[in-house]
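Following up on my earlier thread - several people asked me to post the actual chain instead of describing it. Fair enough. Here it is, all 259 residues.
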Amino acid sequence: MLNRPPHSKPRRLTEQNIIPLARRLLSAVAVLGVAAGLAGLGLWQLDRAQQKRDLHASYLRVATAPRVDLQTLDALGESTKRWRAVALTGRYLPGNVLLDNRVRRGRVGYEILTPLQRVEGPVVLVDRGWVPAPTLRSDTLVLTPPAAGVVTLAGRIAPAPSTGIALGKPQPPEVLGNALWRVQKIDFLALGASLNTPLAPYLVLLDDDQAGGYERQWPLPAADDGKHTAYAVQWFGLSAALLMLAGYYDLRRRAHPHK
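Reply from S.P.:
Thanks for posting it. Predicted structure:
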């Protein structure tokens, strides 16, 4: 049998030591939760950096490829179509979608997305370019209708533009009038429901020399992943600093338990 030192007594849990223990546990949980959240933001920034690298690599692979008819790409995967220069034939459908909060030269505006019913293939949203927003959001935006009848267009396939972190549930398209919607983020399924037709899961950016468009200077993907990596380092640094600071105060408390 083990001999207990003569002056050693088992510690009893009393109200006086349970309350400080509970406080320390709650503090530890809070610190770990905040540190995990900061680390999660760092991981998100690393993921954004990888997305930028993937987009840039995808663009470089096809940037100089010859223009092809979109119909020949229908059987290929979406990643294969991305950034390809294409020609497509169809008829514009009634209605426009305003992609909100698109900034050019420091001014807020909209990108005008118009559905095109292709002669063969699914309906696609053609991005006809950027227009400045009215002074008041309630003001009517006057748009030039696209060409009537069957048209042949030249453009480039692109994914829906990134709009940052989505907070809360996705919002349905805002109805502004007859066949006019405003969205903060492109959701092809939701827009297809509003337009009463399924949509291809990509945009066609109308070429600069094509008629029926607005201001078009398309920002093609660049390898600007460095800022996301820098942000990730900052978030990871904050997480590590918080843990180190919490550890320092815990060691100090243990060294001076009565202070």
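The chain has two domains: 31-63+222-259, 65-163+172-206. That should answer part of your original question.
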